């Protein structure tokens, strides 16, 4: 099959959104898998563009920073109760309370201390956010995420805190062929019985879908280029 263009981004938000939905629906995926969910990675994007995206029917958005999300999203959520807000950037334990209050999905549980803080805050607030564990699938020193070898220990710790983990998330190494990393994620999800697999961004989402991504996090190809995040 000829590779479809996965690159950013011309046209309007409406045409890009329609093209992405179509590409996702058509992308080869494991047999029996549903069409992956599109999570709009909306860091640094202005509120006007987010309103436009919501008006087009987008309902799931990912933010990287708790504070930025706190500034942007409360009024939008008030006006649109059906939105799902995902935290896709690193979480510090001193922000766990705010994160639990604001996000429906936290994709970046990556160490025991964070799991414990989220468990405490979720219990305190009586909330049950959906939780994913971020895996440092390329074992890159500078990257967030639990190392694959330490995943079973972290999952056991989460269970000990009463946290239910529904999936795995990764950001693979930038300058490599992504397929082997996505394949490894797929195997880890299978091994640990994880229903959700959050992987794939603007440049590689079709590859991620091929390896069983259940949600893709797309920024540039949807919203256009952003100022440095
Ligand atoms: C910014 C970001 C994305 C989206 O990246 P694009 O290349 O703009 O699609 C996805 N996931 C995470 C964790 C991000 O920080």
Give an account of the 3D structure.
- The chain is of the alpha/beta class.
- It contains 9 helices and 8 strands.
- The protein has helices spanning 13-26, 47-55, 66-79, 96-102, 112-125, 151-160, 179-191, 205-210, 220-223, and strands at 37-41, 60-63, 84-87, 105-109, 130-135, 165-170, 196-198, 215-218.
- An 8-stranded parallel β-sheet has the order 7-6-5-4-3-2-1-8.
- The radius of gyration is 17 Å and the shape is globular.
- Residues 41, 43, 64, 88-89, 171, 201-203, 217-221 line the site of pyridoxal-5'-phosphate (PLP).
Summarize this structure briefly.
This protein is α/β, with parallel strands linked by helices.
Notable characteristics:
229 residues, alpha/beta, 40% helix, 8 strands, eight-stranded parallel β-sheet, disordered N terminus, single chain, binds pyridoxal-5'-phosphate
Instruction: State the shape.
Output: globular
Distance between the termini: 34 Å
- What level of helicity do the residues show? 25-40%
**Largest beta sheet: strand ordering:** 7-6-5-4-3-2-1-8
Distinct helical segment count: 9
Largest sheet: 8 strands, parallel
Note the quaternary state here.
single chain
Q: How many strands in all? A: 8
Radius of gyration: 17 Å
Structural class: alpha/beta
- Estimate the strand proportion: 15-25%
Write out the distinct hetero groups bound to the structure: pyridoxal-5'-phosphate
| Order of helical and strand elements | HEHEHEHEHEHEHEHEH
**What are the segments in which pLDDT stays under 50 over at least 5 consecutive residues?**
1-8
| Global mean pLDDT | 94
């Amino acid at each position: 099959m000829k590779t479809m263009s996965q690159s950013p981004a011309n046209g309007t938000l409406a045409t890009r959104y329609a093209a992405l939905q179509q590409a996702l629906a058509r992308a080869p995926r494991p047999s029996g898998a549903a069409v992956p969910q599109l999570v709009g990675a909306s860091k640094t994007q202005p509120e006007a563009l987010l309103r436009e995206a919501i008006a087009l029917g987008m309902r799931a958005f990912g933010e990287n920073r708790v504070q930025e999300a706190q500034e942007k999203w409360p009024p939008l959520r008030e006006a649109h109760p059906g939105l799902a807000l995902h935290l896709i950037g690193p979480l510090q334990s001193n922000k766990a309370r705010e994160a639990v209050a604001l996000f429906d999905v936290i994709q970046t549980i990556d160490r025991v201390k964070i799991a414990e803080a989220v468990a405490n805050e979720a219990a305190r607030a009586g909330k049950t956010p959906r939780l994913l564990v971020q895996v440092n699938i390329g074992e890159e020193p500078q990257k967030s995420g639990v190392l694959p070898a330490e995943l079973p220990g972290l999952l056991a710790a989460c269970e000990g805190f009463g946290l239910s983990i529904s999936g795995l998330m990764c950001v693979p190494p930038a300058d490599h062929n992504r397929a082997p990393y996505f394949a490894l994620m797929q195997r880890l999800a299978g091994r640990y019985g994880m229903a959700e697999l959050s992987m794939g961004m603007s440049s590689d989402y079709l590859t991620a879908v091929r390896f069983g991504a259940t949600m893709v996090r797309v920024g540039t190809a949807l919203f256009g280029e952003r100022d440095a995040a």
